[in-house]
Amino acid sequence: MVKSPHEAHHRVFQEVPELFTRALEILGLPGLESATAKTFNCDLTESHPLERRVDTLQELTAPDGSRHLLIVEAQTGKDRAKENSWLNYFGHLVDKYPDHRCMLLVLARDAATARWAAGPFRYGHRHKSNVQLAPFVLGPENVPIVKEIEQAVADPPLALFSVLTHSSHPDIGGILDALSAALVKTADDDTFTRYADLAASGLTGSPAAAEHWRNLVGQRLFELRGFVAESLREQGAEQGLEQGREQGLEQGLEQGRKESLRQVLDARSIALSDTHHALIRQTQDTDLLQTWLTRAVGATTADEVFTPHSAAETPASQA
Fold first, then answer.
1. 319 inside domain
2. Is residue 246 part of a domain?
């Protein structure tokens, strides 16, 4: 489970490997457009007490067989100590994997951090450096703002990365709207949940945007995506009875929300007691189910989802 903007910003490269192609295109680095990616062990610690742990480390294999190691570091601000750490990571990997080409990619969510991270950082004599490190950087100034639904539908990984990079943008609401619409149109349930979780984690430092995203995800999950709602709707229509059709729609909405709630809780590894299972099973209030599902998107425990905030949220079976 992704838990913080920092983790989401680099973990997206692990969870959505298609993003490497977009990143390399933005940076203008040819030859790796069709590379395959796999996650490397990010622990660079030696046998003696010297810890080297990068955020994300990926091995890219190009069509011509050449192999590259890409260090991905998410940076939330200037950190002079990182300049030496990055050189340490780079030198260690060059020494340990001489048959690989090493690259360092820094991810930033504000322009000042991005400009600093680009370096170059020089090491050696103050008038002439022995070594110069110039990281590749992805930040607000070169990552596209994806807020057109057509663009988001055509490239959901880039739309997700646009959310993570531009979380403080004045029009973050429009960027989130585009991603949400794209996921509804293109994503299966697993992909929908994975992208929704990464986006939610990347927005925890922006309360208004995080709330907007929770509402969007809740609304999208309630659009009768489940097969239960669809079958009940069709059943009512086939009977040719308006009452049966309305009943089918209502039952379908209720069952669809219950199924979506269970899926989100499962995806977030939130354990449910027998009491919680009974609450979901017995509740027929679709508005209350919607409230629970909206909370579940950002919750870490079952109590955060089901504890009533008012008397109106107490199920009839408990009142």
1. no
2. yes
